[in-house]
Design goal:
The protein is 24% helix and 18% strand. It is built from 11 helices and 15 strands. It is globular.
């Protein structure tokens, strides 16, 4: 199915809510299936052309860099009793001369450690195999063959092993509102994205990575109650905004990029359904934009060169990343 098909009216349960039939209809309208070939597994990253990468390098003016990753440690946001995910576990496997190197290997000692981490338990990218509905993944791959006990046979994170290098554009929504953070359950719609970026002097370009700051995660790591998981974020209406502007990826400092708990009896994560399954849009979650946002507020420049590379893990449906913003 090609882009632009199925422009029928979207059934909604009530204002600002969408039901499954509405998701299906909008998904047909925004679909990128077949746009880059029947075997494509990269989705909107195809929008990041060599020209886009070169232009991203032009965003580097001062030569300063910022890590956008939250620490991969036990203080993450997950409670395995409710989410099924656990926070990263770090353990030393060799220290204080546990191995007799001094006797057998020329007098030196060493230390080693290991990290037990879920692919979605810290700052990470979602692979396009992470989510589907109506039995089909992005580009029409059937889930029976695409995701098996071995992992993702199609649309795995390994398709991103070459990394993502693009221009990043920061939408600092709470600062635009005069807040430290958005309250739980706050939706950010297309008009607000236009207002926030417009006030920052940013005009989105095809191949950009949208960096959405809600102020959620740094506060949660300090014990702030974000409302039982009802994190603020994008509304489902932003899917069309993103498609129209050729955004290649959206990364946010919250649980799921989109606002949670706002769609009533409809699908819990309609933006995810539209973005990953229909548009093939790369999503990044649990980012930390605090230092970058403070710098952007200080110098008035809300663009950067964005770089991030997932681990080269065959068949994985996601991967931790340490994204870097360079200004």
């Amino acid at each position: 199915m090609g882009a632009g098909e199925g422009r029928d009216a979207m059934p909604v349960t009530e204002a600002n809510q969408i039901d499954l039939d509405g998701v299906r209809a909008l998904g047909r309208e925004l679909s990128n299936w077949g746009r880059w070939g029947e075997d494509d597994e990269r989705g909107t990253l195809n929008l990041v052309t060599p020209a886009c990468v070169s232009a991203a390098a032009a965003a580097v003016r001062r030569g300063v860099s910022f890590s956008l990753a939250m620490p991969a440690d036990e203080n993450g946001p997950h409670d395995p009793r409710t989410s099924g995910r656990f926070n990263p576990i770090h353990s030393m496997t060799r220290y204080r001369g546990d191995m007799p190197h001094g006797r057998f290997m020329g007098g030196f000692s060493s230390s080693e450690d290991m990290l037990i981490i879920g692919t979605h338990s810290s700052t990470h990218f979602d692979a396009l195999a992470h989510l589907w509905y109506d039995d089909l993944l992005y580009n029409g791959f059937h889930h029976d063959a695409a995701v098996t006990a071995r992992g993702a046979e199609r649309c795995s994170i390994q398709n991103l092993a070459g990394g993502v290098v693009a221009r990043g554009i920061l939408a600092d929504v709470p600062r635009h509102r005069g807040l430290d953070h958005l309250p739980p359950g706050t939706g950010v719609g297309p008009d607000e994205l236009d207002a926030v970026l417009g006030a920052a002097g940013v005009v989105p370009r095809e191949g950009d990575v949208l960096l959405l700051r809600t102020g959620t995660y740094p506060r949660q790591r300090r014990g702030f109650d974000v409302g039982e998981g009802r994190s603020p974020g994008l509304t489902w209406e932003c899917a069309r905004w993103i498609r129209d502007r050729g955004i290649a990826a959206v990364c946010a400092d919250n649980l799921a990029v989109e606002v949670l708990g706002a769609n009533g009896d409809g699908p819990m994560i309609p933006f995810h359904m539209l973005a990953i399954r229909d548009m093939g849009l790369l999503l990044g979650e649990m980012f930390d934009f605090e230092d970058l946002a403070a710098d952007c507020a200080a110098d008035g420049v809300h663009t950067c060169m964005f770089t991030a590379s997932p681990l080269n893990v065959p068949y994985a449906v996601g991967s931790p990343v340490n994204p870097i913003a360079v200004k």
